[in-house]
Amino acid sequence: MGDRAGLRGFGAGQLWRTDGWQADAMLTVDAGGHLQAAAGVAGETLGQWVLPGMPNLHSHAFQRAMAGLAERRGPGDDSFWTWRETMYAFAAAIGPDELQAIAAQLYVEMLKAGYTQVCEFHYLHHQPDGTPYAQPEAMSLALVEAAREAGIALTLLPVLYMSGGFDGRPLAARQRRFGHDVSGYVRLLETLRRHEGDDLRVGIALHSLRAVPEEALRSVLATSAAKDGPIHIHIAEQIGEVQDCLAIRGARPVEWLLDHAEVDARWCLVHATHLTGHEASRLARSGAVAGLCPTTEANLGDGLFPLADYLDAGGTLGVGSDSHISVSPVEELRWLEYGQRLASRHRNIAARHAGDSVAETLWRAALRGGARASGLPVGRLAEGARADLIVLDEQAPLLAARDARSCLDSFVFAGNAPLVRDVMCGGRWQVRDYRHRDEERIAARYRAVVERLAAQA
Ligand code: NGQ
Ligand code: ZN
To answer: Does the Cβ of 234 fall within 6 Å of ligand 1?
Structure first.
């Protein structure tokens, strides 16, 4: 490994740059874990296929431990709303220790799958009865600690959650631990911002238009805490939400938001599933990111995002694993495309021009949108960015005889066993030869916590 004044050099057979593969590329990583302009530091060859790690723009970490526990039919018609009841019951048993153990395990799994950053949309703020913890930010700090243990970059998005529906009804008993008034929420943001650094950004999240009354939305966005950083919101995921918004606010959710807030490139609209053509083009023009979570949206029966119209309008998108029914950027991108194929009965939908590759189009788009949603210098292997990269296993039979034209399509569409061999995050190896540096300890603690939760249930 080359080393000059704390600089380390790395080579790659093919390196994914913003506009495509570059052969025989060199990277220089400084002591702080950022990329420098090529300084001619010779060093270790990483492998044949080196890509920027994928940002994961939407996560509720605690939900990983209930993955698969809501797939048995209930007494009536199951829906998003019955799933939510199961999720609320599960959430009630999660305190700071449980959250840290579950999140650390999840983040190890993310790194091994090729995510090197995660946006945590965090609303389990208080004790289950709604009383703040002795340290009010204890649950947020559990996530910060988990990310540090795993070695993943974190954008922490504490969530403002105030009402139980568009009609302004108070929080239900099980939602009480999510709640803040605007000043309590801003205090939490300010406390957490003191922990910000190279691997931690703190942004704003509004749970949804259902959960944040109009006046509160206006006042939180007017505070100095909202002057910079990403702003995320769940929106237009379910038809019921569109109907309630139309009935009570006289507009569809995305239309309403675009009319009532200065939505720009700082914003990430999570799901944005149900859009008219007009909303899709307005959203695309705003520069906001559509935060798509295809495996969760499929699992919850949400519907399909209008991908072709949105891409044709120049829209920005990224992907998230949300409920973590699946933890894999490959699977999110694959299902984003497959949903469109199933609905349209055509092929190669995300590739909008002859000759374009679907996987390259989607990987490039999700890097760009994910980076924008994260508020961190991630998603590209260029000067000033974090050294967050993944190395594919060129020995995998699936990649035999693949070249720069075909590698990503095989990786995204055909990989069933993971093909991510090594992962560097912030200039440090977190995964080498398919193993995370602390995976045994983190998995053992996770197992003990989940077994305890199951015994209590
Ligand atoms: C959440 N998850 O906040 O965890 C939501 C469900 C809700 C997704 N929408 C709860 N996928 O939207 O009220
Ligand atoms: Zn969500």
So the answer is: yes
Averaged pLDDT in 10-residue chunks for the chain of 457 residues: 75 95 96 87 92 98 98 96 97 98 99 98 98 98 98 98 98 98 98 97 98 98 96 98 98 98 98 98 98 98 98 98 98 98 98 98 98 98 97 97 98 94 98 98 99 94
In sequence order, what are the residues at sequence separation of 6 or more whose Cβ sits closer than 8 angstroms to the Cβ of residue 130? 171, 176, 177, 179
**Predicted TM-score of the model (pTM):** 0.98
Q: Is the Cα torsion angle 380, 386, 390, 391 positive or negative in sign?
A: positive
Q: What residue owns the CA closest to ligand 1's atom 7? A: 84
Q: Options 3.40.50.920, 3.20.20.140, 3.30.70.360, 3.40.1190.20; which CATH number does 54-374 get?
A: 3.20.20.140
Where in the sequence of the chain do the CATH 3.20.20.140 domains occur? Answer: 54-374
- 98 and 451 Cβ atoms separated by less than 8 Å: no
Find the catalytic residue in 271, 274, 324, 436: 271
Superfamily, domain 8-52+380-439: Urease, subunit C, domain 1 (2.30.40.10)
What is the distance between the alpha carbons of residues 252 and 234, in angstroms, rounded to a whole number?
Answer: 14
> Which residue lies with its CA nearest to atom 1 of ligand 1?
60
Q: Tell me if residue 271 is catalytic.
A: yes
